[in-house]
């Protein structure tokens, strides 16, 4: 049980990359389906709907980012994981949670929003600028989750 | 710097000059035509739909011919950057010269289209021949024509059944089919067989022909395809046919390629007919009397006089007047070198309405700073500057919208480079990683000029909030300016000044609290006097908001209640300011993801021998950073827009203005502009 701290830290990183990645995968997936539908009718819309499809993809990247800095902090990257205490491991776990949950839910919600935005652009291609803003609204909450996760991880004191 | 001042224009011209006046208006592109308000008994509009659709068809035909030509004779001068290009100015003289030939150009277009039709027909015929070849392949062993029916005494049936069978099985099958009847004398010759088909020939006496035929029917005999030739010859002739079709396709392709020199003429024809169709659209909307026609609309004040002179030279009567108060004046923006890219941002939201100012120049400064902070990598910034700079230099006639976008990215790239050096990020920590991995010098690194956000994230968070507060207060100041300009001094005090006191005072007061400064790790100590002053300013501001927020209500009870509700709006200020934390989050995201790729590269590089390691490192480096750059440029663009649209515009800007859409040349390749 000596390495339980390490386990929790890795669990946090895994959830952060995994759950946020799931959110993005679902979001980008549903958006991609409706993007394909638009492109069958109007191939010239490809680049516009592609951008809208990509918008829910950022959660996965933020999740990866949190997982990466967690792993880097506990020394899992570059070999030789440090011994960290159970308390410190649990703190890493808790710090990863906002990104994991926020990424999962906001990725799905943003994907749905992107679907609607793709529908908007299909009907009114000139309104692309506005269509892009609606999904970006949802992303705010992923960014806030990312912020808290980053600040928490950076703030975990060494050697407790 | 601002909105272009618009004038009303009213034109009355003789019908004899209608064509030249409309063409002048189209070439100058300075008048938005809106003749709906001219109504009179004697005026009628023309029905020109038939002509218009004729022109549209012609334009489409020319466009189709251009596409076909592109397939068979690709334009070699066309560079990678040509997709950014807009219409190029061709000049009046060559325009007039080309007009005389436009009918010929259209004939060329229809010739190209008909040759292409021939190619399409040929292409469709080939698969049909190939199916025939396949069916014939079962009969290659036969040395008589497939439709051979026998001699004077004998009858021959050539055909197949759809299953595998040996010669014996065929005899058995056929004999079984004659069941109960006298079996005629038959001779079966096996021709070929496979899993799905057995081809054979049955010979019998002419007298037995009917009986044999009905027997064959029972075993699902299918007659061979009819042909007067021996199968091998037939196959030969079909193969020849296919070869002929292919030769014809090549020949037609070459024929089309001959027209490559006509490409520019076709482009001219496409544009010419588009212009005419647009002109006829306008024509159908303008009221006309027996010998005159009337146009009314809006035109920019600056060029109104020049346009009047030109129109008067064409015997028109022109009247320029100030717009009426309830006119729906279209809005055009005019901005300087640094600020005109912002027009795309304003356009994406909404154009300013009649009483609002053009926000482009105000958002420009914030826009570049915020975009730079969100991307904040010197390497990425330089790539943006070089890429966009290259396109701006190389492509002379960029599409106007594309040009603004390129400039937007160019200036944002400069800002990104600046912030990258401030925060010590050049392709993430590439300098340090490369020095460590390849030169074993972990001491070399690009040091930040200001500070490293990853080491001191709270410091950057405070910077982000401060930029946010300045941004929001600037928005409020614009509202103040607009209210005072419109003479609403009372509203200015109630809706702006009290809020300044409320929010500004609260921020200063918070900064005097040790808890807040400690949390934000700020090293400022404000005296107790400042604290109490800030406290009283805040209270006064809050009181002002509560007392005046609902001033449109007469009843004091309702008034206070709705005032309290508007004071509750301070929570939206809190969330607005917190929203600027994305400056930190996105900036960190770029840097950390860049580091992830650098780290991956160096780990892979360390695991294999050096020469392969360098190649792998470079591959990971290029792919990773291109991915990171594209995702983060998209993110920075979207979120900078969001901060402008939601937080900033929310303070003072409604939009809803109508964009100025003049009658002009909507052409793709050429334009004939005339300056006023």
Describe this structure in words.
Chain A is an all-alpha fold and 160 residues long. Chain A has a single domain (4-155), classed as lithium bound rotor ring of v- atpase (Four Helix Bundle (Hemerythrin (Met), subunit A)). Chain A has helices at residues 4-41, 46-54, 58-73, 86-123, 128-155. In chain A, helix 1 runs parallel beside helix 4 (86-123) and helix 3 packs parallel to helix 5. Chain A is elongated and about 60 Å long. By secondary structure, chain B is α+β, with helices and mostly antiparallel strands. Among the domains of chain B are: 2-101 and 259-331, no CATH class; 148-223, 2-Layer Sandwich (Alpha-Beta Plaits); 456-579, no CATH class. Chain B has helices at residues 18-28, 49-72, 92-99, 102-136, 167-177, 209-218, 231-258, 263-283, 301-313, 342-349, 360-375, 378-394, 400-422, 430-439, 457-485, 489-511, 514-519, 528-548, 556-567, 570-579, 582-607, 610-652, and strands spanning 2-3, 6-14, 32-33, 88-89, 154-161, 186-193, 198-205, 222-223, 292-300, 317-321, 330-331, 333-334, 658-659, 670-671. In chain B, the strands form 5 sheets. A 4-stranded antiparallel β-sheet of chain B has the order 3-9-2-10, with helices on one face. In chain B, strands 6-7-5-8 form a 4-stranded antiparallel β-sheet, covered by helices on one side. The longest helix of chain B has 43 residues, at 610-652. The chains are: A mainly alpha (160), B alpha+beta (676).
């Amino acid at each position: 049980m000596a390495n339980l701290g390490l386990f929790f830290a890795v669990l946090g990183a895994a959830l952060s990359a995994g759950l946020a990645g799931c959110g993005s995968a679902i979001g980008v997936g549903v958006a991609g389906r409706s993007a394909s539908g638009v492109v069958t009718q109007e191939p010239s819309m490809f680049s516009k709907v592609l951008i809208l499809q990509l918008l829910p993809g950022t959660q996965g990247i933020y999740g990866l980012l949190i997982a990466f800095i967690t792993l880097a902090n506990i020394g899992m990257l570059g070999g030789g994981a440090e011994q960290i205490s159970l308390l410190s491991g649990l703190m890493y776990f808790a710090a990863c949670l906002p990104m994991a949950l926020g990424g999962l839910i906001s990725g799905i919600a943003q994907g749905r929003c992107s679907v609607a935005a793709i529908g908007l652009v299909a009907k009114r291609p000139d309104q692309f600028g506005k269509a892009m803003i609606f999904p970006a609204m949802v992303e705010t909450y992923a960014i806030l989750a990312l912020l808290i996760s980053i600040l928490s991880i950076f703030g975990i004191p060494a050697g407790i | 710097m601002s909105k272009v001042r618009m004038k009303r224009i009213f034109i009355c011209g003789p019908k004899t000059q209608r064509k030249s006046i409309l063409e002048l208006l189209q070439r100058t592109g300075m008048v938005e035509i809106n003749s709906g308000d001219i109504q009179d008994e004697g005026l009628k509009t023309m029905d020109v739909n038939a002509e218009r659709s004729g022109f549209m068809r012609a334009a489409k035909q020319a466009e189709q011919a251009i596409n076909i030509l592109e397939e068979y004779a690709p334009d070699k001068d066309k560079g990678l950057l040509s997709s950014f290009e807009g219409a190029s100015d061709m000049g009046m003289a060559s325009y007039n010269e080309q007009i005389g030939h436009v009918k010929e150009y259209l004939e060329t277009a229809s010739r190209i289209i008909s040759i292409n039709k021939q190619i399409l027909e040929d292409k469709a015929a080939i698969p049909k021949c190939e199916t025939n070849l396949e069916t014939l392949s079962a009969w290659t062993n036969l040395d008589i024509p497939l439709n051979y029916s026998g001699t004077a005494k004998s009858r021959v049936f050539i055909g197949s059944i759809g299953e595998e069978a040996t010669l014996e099985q065929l005899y058995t099958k056929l004999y079984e089919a004659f069941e109960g009847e006298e079996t005629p004398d038959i001779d079966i010759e096996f021709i070929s067989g496979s899993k799905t088909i057995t081809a054979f020939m049955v010979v019998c006496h002419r007298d037995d022909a009917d009986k044999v035929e009905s027997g064959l029917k029972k075993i699902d005999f299918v007659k061979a395809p009819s042909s007067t030739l021996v199968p091998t010859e037939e196959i030969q002739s079909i193969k020849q046919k296919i070869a002929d079709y292919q030769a014809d396709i090549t020949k037609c392709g070459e024929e089309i390629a001959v027209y490559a020199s006509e490409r520019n003429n076709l482009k001219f024809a496409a544009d010419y007919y588009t212009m005419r169709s647009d002109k006829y659209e306008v024509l159908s909307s303008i009221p006309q009397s027996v010998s005159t026609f009337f146009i009314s609309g809006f035109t920019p004040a600056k060029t109104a006089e020049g346009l009047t002179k030109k129109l008067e030279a064409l015997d028109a009567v022109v009247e320029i007047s100030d717009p009426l108060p309830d006119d729906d004046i279209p809005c055009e923006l005019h901005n300087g070198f640094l600020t005109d890219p912002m027009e795309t941002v304003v356009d994406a939201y909404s154009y300013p309405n009649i009483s609002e100012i053009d926000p482009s120049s105000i958002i420009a400064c914030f826009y570049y700073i915020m975009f730079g902070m969100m991307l904040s990598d010197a390497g990425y910034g330089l790539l943006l500057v070089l890429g966009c700079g290259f396109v701006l230099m190389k492509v002379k006639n960029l599409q106007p919208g594309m040009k603004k976008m390129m400039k937007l990215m160019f200036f944002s790239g400069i800002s990104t480079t600046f912030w990258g050096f401030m925060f010590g990020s050049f392709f993430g920590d590439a300098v340090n990683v490369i020095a460590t991995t390849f030169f074993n010098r972990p001491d070399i690194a690009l040091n930040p000029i200001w500070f490293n956000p990853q080491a001191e994230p709270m410091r950057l968070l405070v910077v982000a909030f401060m930029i946010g507060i300045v941004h929001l207060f600037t928005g409020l100041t614009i509202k103040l300016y607009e209210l005072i300009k419109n003479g609403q001094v009372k509203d200015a005090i109630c809706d702006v000044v009290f809020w300044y006191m409320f929010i500004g005072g609260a921020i200063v007061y918070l900064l005097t609290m040790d808890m807040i400064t400690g949390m934000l790790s700020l090293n400022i100590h404000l005296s107790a006097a400042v604290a109490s002053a800030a406290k009283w300013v805040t209270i006064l501001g809050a009181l002002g908001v509560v007392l005046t927020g609902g001033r449109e209500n007469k009843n004091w009870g309702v008034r206070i209640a709705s005032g309290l509700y508007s004071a509750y709006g301070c929570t939206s200020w809190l969330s607005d300011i917190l929203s600027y934390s994305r400056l930190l989050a996105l900036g960190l995201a770029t840097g950390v993801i860049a580091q992830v790729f650098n780290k991956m590269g160096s780990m892979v590089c360390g695991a294999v021998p050096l020469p392969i390691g360098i190649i792998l490192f470079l591959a990971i480096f290029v792919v990773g950073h291109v991915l990171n750059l594209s995702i983060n440029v998209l993110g920075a663009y979207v979120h900078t827009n969001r901060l402008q649209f939601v937080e900033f515009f929310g303070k003072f800007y409604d939009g809803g203005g109508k964009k100025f859409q003049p009658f002009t040349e909507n052409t793709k390749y050429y334009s004939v502009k005339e300056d006023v």
